[in-house]
């Protein structure tokens, strides 16, 4: 036989099946957020972000120490600078966005 | 190779969505099971043999390009050369690639090799396989993609750096996310711990001088569905050069193989190979009937088809500034105004399966449909 005898999926069905569901009929995507627990809340909108990727608009940061991960807040390009930049020192060591900037569409080939 | 028109399954949309296939339809169905292609075992054996033979030739061609320092012809920047050669000499892990062929029933001809970021892997290995289970489970299919992916990740596991294997792609494409999550699924089944991080979320820890994910966990091994030719021109490429103790999969030497400049090199090295079309760099071209392709292009962009010196079909796009190659025109017989292109997969150095994309025109673009196949024994 030239075909796989058995095919099992452990991850992808659960992870991606929700992507084909209709978009939730929300009245508004308006929310109030702060990306850093030491910063102020501001009003923002996420209407261009799909529900599936919504959580990725809020990029967590923190640090491993004392045998565990300690969450401090979130980076987010969806937030204003005022709410994105707090006093937490942990954000300083890591820079992001150095890959992926020149093309944002499918790499399909 | 015969095309048959059939009725799709009544519930085909929900059947494929249950598998996690969420991009089956754009403006028109991308997954099209209103037809299938039937192959004889002799035809499949021919495709399989050609794939194995071409893979060996491609590796020889990479060595030739490195030995002769042909990087300028490939529009590969100087800053990438050391990385390419290191990944080649160190035999860094590589997983897959897809040869695209034209087939007229007798002659099988290579159009190009998608060696760095081939897609339609999930459609081939999963959706097509389950379609056959419903349509004719007793029939065979050239498709051991899934088994080979799991097996090859198992094989690679001891060669990876200890720890997590990350997976990355762009955020905005469900197609790319599906391909990457499918690949991750196979790695998980091989017992490899994994995490997803989108390409623009990758971080660089300036103190530790290492790449990190969103939880600032170090990235040591990473499967990327993101082309090297884009990476070399982005800011983090400098950081990538600064820390070369990361396995980027596919490895940097795939920059040579995924480039269409490899096609004239293959012709130069193997002019008697029955699978390789006559091909030249544009400035050396003497062909009258040919396809002009940018050395970098995707989804059929910026391609011209020339017959008797006249352009008969052309696509627009953003590519071409790096130069063009000219490949002899090969006519694929149309069936019901459809032109099929065969994608033959190499996984872990072995032929692994087949996909078919069908277009309404001579150029296979991003609106071409995926049509399943079976083997008639």
From TrEMBL, chain A:
Species this protein is from: Pedobacter cryoconitis
Record's protein name: Lipoprotein
């Amino acid at each position: 036989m030239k075909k796989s005898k058995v095919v099992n999926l452990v991850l992808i069905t659960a992870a991606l099946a929700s992507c084909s569901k209709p978009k939730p009929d929300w009245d508004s995507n308006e929310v109030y957020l702060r990306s850093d627990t030491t910063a102020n809340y501001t009003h923002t909108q996420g209407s261009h972000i799909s529900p599936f990727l919504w959580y990725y608009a809020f990029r967590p940061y923190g640090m491993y120490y004392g045998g565990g991960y300690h969450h401090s807040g979130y980076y987010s390009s969806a937030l204003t600078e005022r709410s994105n930049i707090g006093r937490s020192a942990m954000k300083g060591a890591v820079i992001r966005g150095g890959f992926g900037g020149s093309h944002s569409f499918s790499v399909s080939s | 190779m015969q095309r048959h028109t059939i009725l799709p399954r009544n519930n085909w949309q929900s059947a494929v969505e249950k598998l996690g296939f969420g991009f089956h339809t754009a403006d028109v169905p991308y997954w099209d099971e209103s037809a299938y292609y039937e192959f004889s075992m002799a035809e499949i054996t021919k495709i399989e043999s050609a794939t194995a033979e071409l893979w060996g030739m491609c590796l020889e061609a990479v060595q030739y390009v490195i030995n002769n320092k042909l990087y300028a012809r490939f529009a590969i920047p100087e800053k990438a050369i050391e990385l390419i050669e290191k990944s080649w000499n160190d035999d860094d892990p590589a997983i897959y690639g897809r040869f695209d062929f034209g087939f007229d029933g007798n002659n099988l001809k290579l159009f190009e090799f998608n060696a760095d970021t081939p897609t339609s892997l999930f459609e081939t290995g999963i959706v097509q396989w389950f379609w056959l289970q419903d349509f004719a489970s007793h029939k065979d299919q050239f498709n051991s993609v899934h088994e080979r992916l799991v097996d090859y990740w198992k094989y690679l596991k001891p060669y990876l750096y200890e720890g997590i294997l990350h997976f990355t792609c762009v955020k905005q494409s469900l197609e790319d996310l599906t391909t990457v999550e499918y690949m991750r699924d196979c790695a998980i089944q091989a017992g490899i711990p994994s995490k997803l991080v989108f390409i623009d979320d990758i971080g660089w820890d300036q103190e530790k001088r290492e790449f990190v994910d969103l939880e600032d966990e170090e990235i040591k091994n990473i499967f990327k569905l993101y082309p090297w030719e884009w990476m070399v021109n982005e800011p983090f490429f400098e950081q990538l050069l600064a820390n070369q103790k990361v396995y980027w999969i596919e490895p940097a030497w795939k920059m040579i193989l995924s480039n269409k400049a490899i096609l004239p090199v293959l012709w130069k090295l193997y002019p008697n190979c029955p699978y390789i079309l006559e091909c030249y760099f544009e400035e050396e071209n003497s062909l009258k009937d040919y396809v002009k392709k940018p050395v970098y292009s995707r989804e059929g962009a910026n391609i011209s088809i020339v017959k008797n010196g006249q352009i008969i079909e052309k696509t627009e796009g953003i590519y071409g500034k790096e130069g063009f190659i000219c490949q002899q025109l090969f006519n694929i017989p149309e069936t019901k105004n459809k032109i099929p292109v065969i994608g033959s997969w190499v996984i872990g150095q072995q032929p692994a399966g087949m996909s078919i994309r069908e277009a309404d025109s001579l150029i296979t673009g991003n609106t071409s449909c995926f049509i399943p196949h079976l083997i008639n024994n």
